[in-house]
Design goal:
Number of helices: 0
Distance between the termini: 32 Å
Largest sheet: 4 strands, antiparallel
Order of helices and strands: EEEEEEEEE
Structural class: mainly beta
Strand order of the largest sheet: 4-3-8-9
Oligomer: single chain
Shape: globular
Strand content: over 45%
Length: about 120
């Protein structure tokens, strides 16, 4: 089995893992926000948490996406501190393309979403 065959893209009824993406265009830049738990908050305990989110941008006509952000969440229910799995990146791009977001849940694996710009 290839690693890419383990990436999930559809949520289950009781939990939300697919990263949500919002993109705002401002002054020639793309402000990208990626987060897990848009409709139903994802638990972020030591036992069950989102460990990281990666953001990629593939410019129109390019062969490969470029990693524009990598975010690790190190505090998962430690004392009274809970990490909210949210990542933001700003990209200056001359043309449109596609944003890809990959997230990792320590129990439920890899999750992906994408959005066209």
């Amino acid at each position: 089995m290839k690693l890419t065959e383990t990436i999930q893209t559809a949520d289950w009824k009781s939990e939300k893992h697919v990263p949500a993406i919002t993109i705002d265009k401002e002054d020639g830049a793309l402000k990208i926000k990626a987060f897990v738990g848009e409709e139903i908050e994802h638990p972020n305990t030591l036992e069950h948490h989102i460990a990281w989110i990666k953001v990629f941008f593939k410019p129109e006509g390019a062969k490969f996406p470029i990693e524009v952000g990598s975010y690790e969440f190190a505090a998962h229910g430690e004392e009274d501190l809970l990490t909210v799995p949210c990542a933001e990146a700003t990209v200056k791009a001359d043309k449109g393309g596609e944003v890809y977001v990959l997230s990792y849940c320590n129990i439920h694996g890899l999750w992906e979403n994408s959005a066209e710009v």
